[in-house]
Design a protein that fits this description.
The protein is an alpha+beta fold. The protein has a single domain, classed as Glutaredoxin, CATH 3.40.30. The protein is about 30% helix and about 30% strand. It has a four-stranded mixed sheet with strand order 2-1-3-4, covered by helices on one side. A hairpin with a 4-residue loop joins strand 3 and strand 4. The radius of gyration is 12 Å and the shape is globular.
């Protein structure tokens, strides 16, 4: 899952109900199984104090980036986007 990922940043407000997908994505991507796919991948969590936009920003090893606004997405959609872009790099 993280094979081609250099940096993954998840930003969300814990008090915003729209942040559920970003938090769930972070929980899934932080599993031991996923972390083992690339030990050099850096995962950052940004906990916001405002009710701004919840985002997932991913930088890949080839310099390509993926920036998602996750307010109207579910965790599965975020994972699918990551897999889709990662598959094009291989």
């Amino acid at each position: 899952m993280l094979k081609n990922v250099k940096l993954l940043r998840v930003a969300f407000s814990p008090f915003d109900p729209r942040s559920k997908s970003a938090r769930e994505f972070l929980r899934r991507i932080s599993s031991k199984k996923n972390l083992a796919t690339n030990k050099k991948a850096k995962i950052e969590t940004v906990v916001r104090e405002d009710y701004g936009v919840n985002t997932v920003d991913i930088e890949f090893n080839n310099g390509q980036s993926l920036n998602l606004v996750t307010c109207n997405m579910i965790a599965e959609e975020i994972l699918e986007e990551l897999e889709l872009v990662s598959a094009t790099i291989n």
